[in-house]
Write a structure and sequence with these properties.
This protein has 300 residues and is mostly beta strands. Helices cover 0% and strands 44% of the residues.
Length: 300
């Protein structure tokens, strides 16, 4: 169980989305710093500066298709994946952007897409829908969630390294291999830190006012971000302090200006999907150094 003496967490709070947050993801560290992307049921993925949470830009115009963006060529039209299902939960880049993993909202399994042919080449079988897939920043490990199970896999061969069962259902998990820690979030609105070696809970952090749909470590592994049904992103620090100059530092919550631009940071790419959650809009995102993907399934 978590220690009774754990420090109080005061996260940076990032507003801007008008609907629940269903995925957040960090970029690798670039010459401009690192970036935080978010997807929401409002159908407008956003990009922020990762250290402060300040808004950078918003992607618009996705509808029922996966689009592949090259952020080094902002004027080039995106590619599209043929035959991709509409109920997409997450996208994850592998093998130097040559492979894209896709999990689904309403069926088990993870689809494997070859970016050279823009087609599905394999289906990884699972017993239930996979709610979260994460590739580590060194591209060596995958972390997957399914109900109360958290699976840690070798990325290249997709071999299982370890499977842990946590006490409560989690929608998302993120692993910090160098810290021997992983974090989870789920329906109970709290975020948890666990010891990778023992599977024991180390911390429980409260603050969201709705289920936590997504959680990810920053590339420094000193902070992690969570996104919730309450429409906010919260950036948590391991030492109990907030990162950057956001709401937790006494400043107003980070809110984007009314204008909307296409986000194109140099040397950073985003993979995002806004997809078919029941009766609404949903989404997911993943970063690489060169490319991005985005998709949206509009509810009728």
């Amino acid at each position: 169980m978590a220690s009774a003496q754990q420090p109080k967490r005061s996260p940076v709070i990032c507003h801007g989305h008008s609907r629940p947050i269903v995925e957040v993801n960090y970029s690798v560290i670039t010459p401009e710093g690192y970036f935080l992307a978010s997807a929401s049921k409002d159908g407008k993925p956003m990009l922020r500066f990762g250290e402060s949470g300040d808004w950078y830009g918003t992607f618009e115009g996705m509808e029922k298709v996966i689009r592949i963006y090259d952020l080094a060529r902002p004027d080039q039209a995106p590619q599209q994946l043929a035959g991709a299902p509409s109920g997409i939960r997450s996208l994850t880049w592998l093998q130097g952007d040559q492979t894209l993993l896709c999990s689904f909202t309403d069926k088990p399994g993870v689809g494997v897409y070859d970016m050279r042919s823009l087609s599905q080449v394999q289906m990884m079988q699972t017993a239930a829908p996979v709610t979260s897939v994460e590739l580590s920043f060194d591209a060596q490990y995958l972390t997957m969630t399914d109900g109360r199970s958290v699976r840690f896999m070798e990325a290249n061969g997709l071999q299982l390294l370890k499977e842990l069962t946590v006490p409560r259902t989690c929608e998302s998990a993120s692993w910090a291999p160098s810290k021997r820690r992983f974090v989870t979030g789920g329906e109970d609105m709290w975020v948890y830190v666990y010891d990778y070696d023992t599977g024991l809970e180390i911390e429980c952090n409260k603050g969201h006012h709705g289920p936590v749909h997504t959680i990810r470590w920053a590339p420094t592994y000193e902070t992690y971000a969570s996104g919730s049904e309450d429409g906010t992103i919260r950036i948590w620090s391991l030492d109990g302090s907030s990162e950057g100059g956001g709401a937790a530092a006494g400043n107003p919550p980070v809110t984007p200006p009314p204008s909307r631009v296409t986000a194109r940071p140099q040397a950073c790419a985003l993979a995002s999907v806004t997809c078919g959650w029941p009766g609404s809009l949903g989404g997911a995102i993943s970063h690489t150094k060169r490319r991005s993907a985005a998709a949206q399934d509009r509810a009728l």
